[in-house]
Each structure stands twice: as C-alpha cells, then as structure tokens.
Amino acid sequence: MMNGFVGSGLIACAMLAATAYGQNNGGTTPEAAPQTNSSQAESAPSVGLKDAFAGKFLIGTASDLRGYSDAELANIKANYNVITPENCMKPQPTQPSEDTFNWTTPDALVKWCQDNNIKVWGHTLCWHAQTPNWFFQPGADGQPVTRELAMARLKNHILTEVGRYKGRVIGWDVVNEAINDGGAGETENLRNSSWNRLIGPDFLTLAFKWAHEADPEAQLYYNDYNIDQGSVENKGKHASSMLLLKRLLKEGAPINGVGIQGHWHLDTSIPDVEKAIADYESLGLKVSISELDVTVTGGNSGAFPGGGGGGPVSAEAFQQQAQVYAKLFDIFNRHSKTISRVTFWGISDRRSWRSGQRPLVFDARLQPKPALQAILDVGLGKNVTK
Ligand code: G3I
254: pLDDT confidence band, cut at 50, 70 and 90? Predict the structure, then answer.
C-alpha cells in the first residue's frame, strides 16, 4: 500500500536496518535507535491516546511526515488528533531566501491531516534558530538593516505563512524561546537574539499582532522550554516568563496561551509543572504541553538540549518513566479546563530528536512502552498514581 510520504513500507524497513544511530534524529532521517527489550514491550492497547483524553484536550505528535512508513502513519491516525510540523514550517525551510517560499512539505502535511481529520498546529514563526541569515543582513541597497527593514521582513514572513494556512492551521507558536537560560527571574531576561537587537523587545507583541491580522481565528501561543521549572519558588526562567507574559498582555498582544515545551526527565520537578500551569491560568491564558518527552538517560543535562544517553536502559528505568508520565497526565487531567493540547515531540524513540535517551511512549520499533499504558490508565480513570 503506497502513501503520500513514502514509496513503500519495505523501503522504510530497509532504511531502518541500514542507517546509523545518532543523537539528533532531526525527525526525518530514520535512525536505528535501540528499542525496548521484548520483555519490556507492552501489548498494543485497544484504545488510542486521543480517545483516552477525548473531551479534555487534544493529543498531538510532532512530525514532518516525510519518509514515514504505512505503520507509522497508521500509528499517528490511531493515537493523535493534532500534528505539529517538527521542522518544515520554520523560517529556514519556508523562506530560505528573501521572498522565495517553499511550501512543498507543509502543504503535503496539511493536506494529509485534512484528509485524515487531524488538526495542524503551526511551529514556528519567529525564532532565533532555524532562521536564515538573510533576515538580518543588508538589503538590496546594501544599507545596514534598520528596525524598519527587520520589521518589514518579519511581518511579510508572518502574513505570508499564516495567511497561506488560514483556516487550516488551528494555532501557532508565534514566538519561540525568546527567554534566555540561567537568569534569576528578576527581569524578562530576553535572549540577545537578532530580532531583539534589531527591533527591540516589542518584536514579540508585533509578531502576535501580525499573526492575528493574518488569521483572526487562529490560537496564538508563546512557546518555550524550562519556563515551568522554578515556579514553586517563583524564580528563574518561570519568573521571567511571567514578567514577559504580563508585559505582552499589557501591550495588547493578541496572545491566547503558553506552550510549556515539556522536554523533561526522570528528576523533573512535578510540583513545578503544576504550579506553572496554575500561574499561566491566573493570567487568563490557556496552556499546552507543546513538545512533551521524558528522557530516561542523561539525567538533568541542563535540560536543553539533551546530551548523553544511548546505552542500555533497565526495565526499572522504563517503569520510572511510566510513573513520571502518569503523574504528569494526572496533572493535565486535573487542569483540563486550562490545558488545550498535549503534544509528544515525535512518534517513537526512533524518530525522536533525543532518540538515544528513549523519551517517548513507543519504542524504536513502534512497540508500546510501559509509559503508554500508564498514560492510558490515567485517561481512562484507572490506577492513577499521585
Ligand atoms: O533538513 C536538513 C537536511 O537537508 C540535511 O541533510 C540534514 C543533515 O543533518 O539536516 C537536516 O536538517 C536538520 C533538521 O532537524 C531536519 O531534519 C537539522 O540538521 C537539525 O538540526 C534539525 O533539528 C531539529 C531542531 O529542532 C533544530 O533546532 C529537530 O529535528 C527538532 O526536533 C528540533 O525541535 C525543537 C523545536 O523546534 C523547538 N524546541 C526544541 C526542539 C528540540 O530541539
């Protein structure tokens, strides 16, 4: 059976066997990541993830869908009702040079999702990474980039992309990762990005306004990592995020919610996650867990980006991972009025950007791990672990 993204399942299997193991999978290149031992793999549950949380929040995955086997596409259809394009909607692939746009992969993704009754969440419009240098280089006249030119380029990018997918993409991570790591939380601690340097701190509010102008119905979110941690003590990146969000609201940014990325590990502070959700709710904002994964090796490697991993993983570690996932989903359940979406960052340990750290709920061979059943149990109201 042929599908729109891969020649055949046979080719995909052959690629799986032939490719090398790597740390950052990039989401599109098959990698021979280690799989769960057969004794650790669970039998396939009859209920899909999305069905276990129906009526509470959307359940998503991240993918560009290129090169996916029929089995992978079937897994997506069974478990998820929203997809975030992992890379193909970012500024680098969509506008590699000024006014030259490339929509091949995102168009195919949006069509496949529409055909299969799956929603699309756009990622991302304004970021310091995966953004081509031309955005910040002199224009045709050779003059240095002014605030006005940088604004015009960002506005054109946002109006073009959001406008293209108006009505077909339910919402956007408008600005991604604008807050720096390591601050005390006493200021917004904005990253010294080219956008911040050229336009100034109001680049965020402007980006939200342009996205709203292009699609007034789209949900618009600020997205970042580690903004949940430290929230119980109201310090660090969480405190900075609260200052930033309050300022955006004051400036009239049409912001609907916050994406807590959720690149977590076995020692992540679960109380911090719950407090952060409550804090954002207190600002009148929705929350999504936008890039969920829980690594079982590598520990807290500064939490981002993930290093380490790749070695054998014990059955006990996979049980611990299941417990962490269960505790997290118990929180999401209890805050389902605020949580709009929980999106896993990839479909399997083979496809994960942290494939060596075995962070997802399906193993490298797409077999369920203990975490999957633990999450389903929470969704279905069974054996909830507090
Ligand atoms: O597209 C090129 C391809 O042409 C080339 O042959 C290949 C060679 O390595 O690289 C491909 O680009 C890679 C791209 O993924 C697509 O596969 C990049 O090298 C690689 O760096 C890129 O990594 C992505 C990373 O963002 C970039 O920062 C990961 O897949 C993606 O999972 C990751 O996602 C981010 C979120 O957008 C934001 N939050 C953090 C999260 C994890 O880093």
Answer: very high
Q: Is 293 in the pocket of ligand 1 (CB under 6 A)?
A: no
Virtual torsion, Cα 29, 221, 176, 198, nearest 10 deg: 140
Ligand 1 in reach of 27 Cβ (< 6 A):
yes
Query: How far apart are alpha carbons 345 and 353 in whole angstroms?
Result: 8
pLDDT tens digit sequence for 89-117: 999 999 999 999 999 999 999 999 999 99
Shortest-distance atom of ligand 1 to CA 26: 30
Question: Ligand 1 within 6 A of 130 CB?
Answer: yes
Q: Whose CA is nearest to atom 34 of ligand 1?
A: 86
Contact 237, 185 (CB under 8 A): yes
Question: Helices marked H in the chain — which ranges?
Answer: 9-18, 49-52, 70-79, 91-94, 104-115, 147-164, 194-199, 203-214, 236-250, 270-282, 315-334, 370-379
CB 5 within 8 A of CB 73: yes
Q: How far apart are CA 369 and CA 382, in angstroms?
A: 17
Cα 167 to the chain's mean position, in Å?
A: 21
